[in-house]
Design a protein that fits this description.
alpha/beta, Dihydrodipicolinate Reductase, domain 2, Rossmann fold, twelve-stranded mixed sheet, 22% strand, globular, binds nicotinamide-adenine-dinucleotide
Length: 454
């Protein structure tokens, strides 16, 4: 971590308009070695890619550029994404890989060590459990589950088969959140009793009004398999592209966005259980389109042992993602690609305003006496300067998260975001929806492993 002068900072980040409070530092990214020209086949981690849609195409492009990592096959139910997968792979390696509609082909393939899966949420549990049972490791996108019981099935399958399961909430590998955790754990901001986590979007794209691929048809998409164990439905390109908005396949705002915010909170605060209680309010205000099930605004107050967290996401107003850890001695704030710390000493810095209610003589005496008691000798004042830490330009937390996964596969080190962690944040998302739809407090029942209406 290097200290930066303001001029250096401007030069390195091009942040001409940035407001700098206190000192600024540039964080160093994790040391991922450069890709060697040739890695011996015995040293390579070989993965199969399942789901090459919006997220999967990005994960594929990042993974194949990591040193010693090779994609050997790709799977999707839509043939257009076989073409996409090979265009991504060919650009980076000048080679192509076999493609299939059946992920079971990848599980049967002895050349494949592990799977990277980026499929809609209603498919996560089955693919993770099948992969573990086939003796392979898996990186599966967030949120870990679509329904609560699935989380415990995934944990059992991972433990029984001694498999690495990593969930794809990239904040868990972010150097920014690691710094926030270090600052909070150092005690520099005292006791954190409240966290605010907010973000917003305000565009059709932000509200999941995604344009389906124009050529999508029952001929080039296996629609029946895409539905999985969801209720039968006629072929529908809108559902294919905008699945997040429907209860049968996704979890709306909590599963899509809260999960990232909860990941940051659980990581920084060292949370190892689901929230105890959740209370949500929200509504459908701007995006009541496509007969979708989920509201476009949700705010949830979570109750954790020792602190509360207020999580608010709207699709009706754009706002940066900002999380504030509010401590008794200061604030740690994560915003954009930075984390800052500011301090509070918790003391009065002037006679308390209450004395304006005193008669004038008493007021004057109180002020005189207060000032005498609080006089600071010149040169003895202690100040704690605010500090901001920036990620380096071009920093990519997805890349670090994937690298952590492949390193776990290689070394058998436990994954940074294993199924217990993924299950806890996913349960937090399900509790938010449960509270919203039942219009009452949701309570986590640990003994019964179920959400109850309180
Ligand atoms: N970590 C992040 O920041 C982030 C961002 C976006 C999406 N995601 C997650 O990634 C996952 C995928 O989201 P997306 O936006 O890329 O969805 P998408 O609809 O764009 O792509 C999903 C792909 O999976 C394929 N698919 C579905 N079921 C399949 C099956 N059984 N076998 C093989 N292929 C199957 C579909 O045909 C589709 O091409 C979701 O879990 C989502 O929550 C994570």
């Amino acid at each position: 971590m290097k200290h930066l002068s303001r001029r250096d900072f401007m030069k390195r980040t091009g942040a001409a308009g940035a407001t700098l409070a206190g000192k600024s530092y540039l964080l160093e990214a994790a040391a991922i070695p450069p890709a060697p020209a040739r890695t011996p086949p015995s040293d390579r981690i070989r993965f199969g890619m399942v789901g090459i849609g919006m997220q999967g195409s990005g994960l594929l492009g990042l993974s194949i550029r990591l040193p010693g990592v090779q994609c050997v096959a790709a799977c999707d139910l839509y043939d257009g994404r076989h073409v996409l997968a090979n265009s991504i792979i060919e650009r980076a390696t000048r080679k192509t890989v076999p493609t299939t509609r059946r992920y079971q082909d990848l599980l049967d393939n002895k050349e494949i060590d592990c799977i990277v899966a980026a499929v809609p949420d209603h498919w996560h549990a089955k693919i993770v459990v099948d992969t573990c049972n086939a003796g392979k490791d898996i990186y599966c996108e967030k949120p870990m589950t679509h329904k609560v019981p699935e989380g415990f099935e995934i944990i059992d399958a991972a433990e029984k088969n001694h498999r690495v399961v990593q969930i794809g909430s990239q904040r868990r590998s972010s150097i920014i959140y690691a710094k926030a955790k270090e600052l909070v754990e150092s005690g520099a901001i005292g006791d954190v009793r409240l966290i605010e986590d907010t973000m917003g979007r305000n565009s059709p794209c932000g509200a999941w009004v995604y344009p389906p691929p124009p050529d999508l048809s029952p001929e080039n998409l296996d629609w029946k398999t895409w539905l999985g164990d969801a209720p039968p439905h006629v072929f529908d390109p809108i559902r294919f592209a905008r699945w997040r908005a429907y209860k049968s396949y996704g979890e709306g705002i909590p599963g899509d966005l809260y999960v990232h915010l909860l990941t940051g909170i659980h990581y920084v605060m060292g949370v190892e259980n689901p929230p105890e209680r959740a209370y949500s309010l929200g509504g459908m205000f701007q995006w009541d389109v496509d007969h979708r099930d989920y509201p476009d605004q949700m705010s949830t107050l979570y109750d954790y042992p020792g602190f509360r967290a207020l999580v608010r996401v709207t699709l009706d107003n754009h706002a940066d993602e900002v999380v504030r850890f509010l401590g008794t001695r200061g604030t740690v704030e994560v915003r954009d690609e930075s984390v800052s710390i500011s301090h509070q000493d918790g003391k009065n810095h002037a006679p308390c305003y209450y004395i304006s209610s005193y008669p004038p003589k008493l007021h004057a005496e109180y002020v005189k006496e207060w000032e005498a008691r609080h006089r600071t000798e010149p040169g003895t004042a202690s100040t704690t300067e605010a500090m901001t830490y920036y990620a380096p330009p071009g920093y990519n937390e997805d890349r670090d998260h994937l690298w952590n996964f492949f390193q776990s596969v290689r070394t058998r080190r436990p994954s940074v975001e294993g199924p217990h962690f993924g299950n806890n944040t996913a349960i937090g998302c399900h509790m938010a929806n449960d509270s919203y739809f039942h219009q009452t407090m949701a309570r986590w029942d640990e003994a019964e492993r179920a959400i109850r209406s309180a």
